[in-house]
Design goal:
44% of the residues lie in helices and 16% in strands. By secondary structure, the protein is of the alpha+beta class. Helix 2 crosses helix 3.
Length: 140
């Protein structure tokens, strides 16, 4: 049982771990032992998460979620399976905690009169610079 927040617990059986061979540190050992870990979590069928959290998790995870709604996190930083497994779980928990925070609603704002004036002055200056570069201006 993982404790994500004081109110959210997740059963470890929802996570699937697969160990694969990794590149990186380990010397000859890296060619013989499957130390890298792939953590898989089925977002769409998870009973632990609310639907709004699932949507934010899919959005935050980006390319790490496949078309079936399964999140894939890889960890291959360490030389041991245990350390890589713990690293993958920590990445997952961090991603899940970020998805629990609802985004702030955007308030519509309008540009101030001073900022509009400043923008127009900048455009006039830029146009004047371009006009001085033209050949017709040099002839006059």
């Amino acid at each position: 049982m993982f404790q994500i927040t004081p109110s959210l617990h997740m059963d470890e059986r929802e996570l699937l771990f697969e160990f694969i061979r990794a590149s990186g540190p380990g010397g000859q050992n890296v060619n013989k032992v499957a130390t890298a870990v792939q953590l898989r979590f089925d977002i769409t069928n998870s009973p632990s998460l609310a639907s709004d959290v699932k949507g934010r998790l899919v959005q935050l995870a980006g390319k790490r979620v496949n078309s079936d709604g399964v999140l894939l996190i890889e960890a291959r930083r360490f030389r041991t399976q245990e350390a890589n497994r713990e690293g993958a779980v920590q990445k997952f928990i961090e991603l899940l905690r970020r998805s629990l925070v609802p985004p702030k609603p955007r308030r519509k704002t309008r540009p101030s009169a001073a900022s509009r004036e400043k923008r127009l002055q900048g455009k006039k200056r830029k146009g004047e610079v371009k006009r001085t570069r033209s050949k017709s201006y040099e002839m006059e």
